Amino acid sequence: MPFHRIAAIVLRQIYLMRGSPVRVLPIFAWVAIDIVLWGFITRYLNTIASTGFDFVPMLLGAILLWDFFTRVMHGVTIAFLEDVWSHNFLNLFASPLSIREYVGGLVLTSIATSLLGLLTMVVLATTVFGLSFFVYGLMLVPFLLVLFLFGIALGIFASALVLRFGPASEWIVWPLPAFLSPFAAIFYPVSTLPRWMQPVSYLLPPSYVFEGMRAIVSGGAYRGTALLWSTCLAALYILLASWFFTRIHRHAVRTGLLARYSAESVS
Amino acid sequence: MVRIALAKKKGMEDTVIPKVLSVNRLRRIYGDTVAVDGVSFEVERGEIVGLLGPNGAGKTTTINMILGVLEPTSGTIRIEGADIATSRSRALERTNFAAVYAPLPGNLTVYQNLRVFGLLYGVKKLQERIEALIDQFDLKRLRHAKCGVLSSGEQTRVSLAKAMLNRPRLLLLDEPTASLDPAVASDIRTQVREFVSRDKVGVLWTTHNMYEVADVCDRVLFLSHGRVLLEGDPRTLPPEHGKETLEELFIAVAREPLALKRI
Q: What's the pTM value of the predicted model, to 2 decimals?
């Protein structure tokens, strides 16, 4: 796979961010707002809880991990939407660029932006609210990996939906993580969910991460096989999302949707 | 013996230089509408071919299929022998285009756009190539200007610079001078002609300006209702069909294609 074409997609995003603080700010702003808000909530909960239970690693840690997942997903979709907003599909897809290279460029962009977001969250959560990552131990690395992989998969999937339904369907991208959040067991165990929701929850890799995080914080054991399963599941979703994007692109080329993208449909 | 015969055959094939563009029985249907109906033509090295026709004749649809952003219902497209359907990247590495309806992203500067597209097309010695094109298209003053703030003429010059970045073997120009004043349009035509004669590029050029066609095109194809109605030298074609000028011939193609077919 020629790297120069992937580099072109990444470079375009770097140029866009370098030339526009408005694009850079959201990478830090949303996650910072979330950490500050939930930091104070957990601090308050700690003062009223009679058991002396520490909510910081449980709630603030969960928020941090979920925000990381959301930033990864948005990293992919925002990079994709930049091409929608600037009507750039014809220029891009009439070049030798392949879909694999294009998606690869979007993913690399997301790695950079989500790591910046993660760094902001970690600094705020540790320095202001005393969240210690030593609580999670080495498990933090696979937790982040699973969330990263699933964020990439969801980002590719959401981009494919916008490619299929046209520029006006951009709104689909934003509430997708919120739609999944009740199933992802971010703040409560999967067992809390009604029976019909639990199978859906077990199909979502983040559920295993949050179950694991709670198990570690409360001093319980966490099965490595569950983590391995969630990693495989997330990797499978990336493959499925990439296949879906390729199919949608192929459909757009076949029907003429790509050539007339702003029309949103072709007869 | 068989091996020698095969080698000879292979050697002969190697010496045959494929056409820059070879379009064969191209057809595109949208629902009940036949947009392109069995179009076949070729473009040679160093040749500028005008693709003419009234609005809706199928010119842009044909160009979109050549660029690989629209799949033909049937037919084949080969760019220097590479089939766009099976060797898409290889075919498009040798191609580039400029079209009024595909401006470069307005939120990047001239230089940034040339750099990004230079990487996409795998241009060797990219920095040198960008500087040469910035000089050639008089873009020095606009180097750090965002493309979105440029005038139509300036945007066209940037699009043409992008179109020539990879020294394409096939250049597709869809109404490149549509929004330009006559002086700038004349400069653009001169630059494209120089590029063609220097690099032996094949060009497919669509325009509604018949003066331009007579000025730059070696050969023209008149498209009507998705079919090639006429083909020939733009200077001799009008008298061959009982018309005085290319513009008259164009009007006849647009209004009475069937009558013209009988001539």
A: 0.89
